[in-house]
Amino acid sequence: MNSKISYDRAQLELRAAHIGVGAFHRAHQQVYYDDLARLNSEDSKNWGVVGINLTPPNISELHEAQGASYSVLTDDGNLASCREVGTLMRVLDADSAAGFDWSDIDFATLTITEKGYCHRAGSTELDPDKVSADIAFPTNPKTAIGYLALMLDQRRRAYGNPITLASCDNVADNGILLGSVVRAYMEQVFPDSLAWLDDSVTFPTSMVDRIVPAMSDTSRVKLEKACGGKDALGVVAEPFRQWVMENKFASNRPGFELAGAQIVDNLAPYEHMKHRMLNGLQSAYAELGRLCGFNSSDGASNNKDLQIWADVFLESQASTLICPNGENLEKYGRISLKRLQNPTIHHPLNQIASDASFKLPQRIGAPAADLLNSGHNAEAQAMVIAGWAIMAGDTSADENGVVTTDPMASQLAMLRKRHESSHSDLANAFLALPIWPERVREDANFAALTTKWVNIFSGATAVERLAQIRKFSKE
Ligand code: NAI
Ligand code: CS2
């Protein structure tokens, strides 16, 4: 099926913005905007979006050259469906974004990656070292936080009208985080705008979900063949998508609920469910799957031993959750595993393992702390951390050239080298990183279990590791 743009794009008005026009944005938020335009409903049909990329790649000219539209191919192994998206009206790079007039923008989203918030991993605190250059030269910001603060102070406040800034990144409490780092930055650089900021800008938290692996040459060929032509911005994604947004808006906003999004007062249960079940399993397979010789999510999740382990892991993760309204955690876990088994979404484990220092705190550390606090041993979580300790900082490429990157990569590689002779020291060194909840860092039994699995995994073959994982799952 190939669904072309059916609405009059001349009706679109540049009323929304997005920072971080990556694969996920093009396959997720932008599809909701396009759905609204197709619905042609009076109060939401004309939301057009300006995209801003503050870091490479610069896709502005590509976007313009292909007529400001692109395709999204969704495929679940049974049905492939292609749709054109036309609501991304312009894309600006950092230089052109500096001069962009935000006066007509009511609503903005961000997907700038877990490390784009200039915060301390595992917290919502601004890390001053990561914004020191912007603090020194505030009118020439290089970070998203510096860019937003300058826009709010020098453009938005001047017009006085409120704005909603919604993070859509996979970080814990993403709206609280964005509000915290923007306010901490403005306290130092634009203190006279703080009262206006508190009155006129909101930062709702979102849970966003759709598996959108980085495009490869193979997926690009598949998309262009299925969608009928050259498309440098097209993306391949799974059919599943979900967007749950906190009901906290300062300004006019698109009626995303008309396109199936959920607007809720209590977002946390939805975020924790997704971060700990779907994302938690992805990260668990990124660590354990690679140790057992797999390089993709579907490869690991189709292995019988790792499926049986997933049941144990997901049950322990689910036991730390409050079930969100309308959800069933046991069913959500089954669907999560099924989604990862989708053979058409080749999701490299090295990509999922990237930025683990910013991902594992909410996916593994937080549930482990909750389990320990409720008297459980959190051994499945200890296994994932042990796997990370053995491989963190390893930048070797997989068979498709995909490498794992992490802002802490050199520090982690040094820890591994320094402690390669002692499994206990390696486990304790990783558990001492300031990214984990205190309960995890200080629990002697959890440290002993992490050491146990570092010892089991180190030096063992993939087959031996799988046998040990199978044994654990059956205990
Ligand atoms: P991508 O690599 O295609 O795009 C990354 C985007 O982030 C680019 O537009 C880049 O300009 C921007 N960016 C990167 N580092 C930045 C920084 N330090 N400051 C400002 N902007 C920066 O990645 P993709 O797939 O679009 O994912 C982006 C984020 O979306 C993820 O990190 C995650 O938080 C979130 N997400 C991704 C999902 C996926 O399946 N790919 C699903 C759910 C959420
Ligand atoms: C993945 C996520 O790379 C990763 O960190 O776990 O991008 C995951 O695919 C999405 O959160 C799914 O919504």
From TrEMBL:
It holds the Pfam family Mannitol_dh_C. It comes from the Bacteria. Residues 15-256 form the Mannitol dehydrogenase N-terminal domain. Coiled coil: none annotated. Keywords: NAD, Oxidoreductase. InterPro entries: 6-PGluconate_DH-like_C_sf, 6PGD_dom2, Mannitol_DH, Mannitol_DH/Oxidoreductase, Mannitol_DH_C, Mannitol_DH_CS, Mannitol_DH_N, NAD(P)-bd_dom_sf. One of its GO terms (biological process) is mannitol metabolic process. The keyword Glycoprotein does not apply. GO terms for molecular function: oxidoreductase activity, acting on the CH-OH group of donors, NAD or NADP as acceptor. Residues 266-442 form the Mannitol dehydrogenase C-terminal domain. Gene3D superfamilies: N-(1-d-carboxylethyl)-l-norvaline Dehydrogenase, domain 2, NAD(P)-binding Rossmann-like Domain. SUPFAM superfamilies: 6-phosphogluconate dehydrogenase C-terminal domain-like (SSF48179), NAD(P)-binding Rossmann-fold domains (SSF51735). The keyword NAD applies. This is Mannitol dehydrogenase.
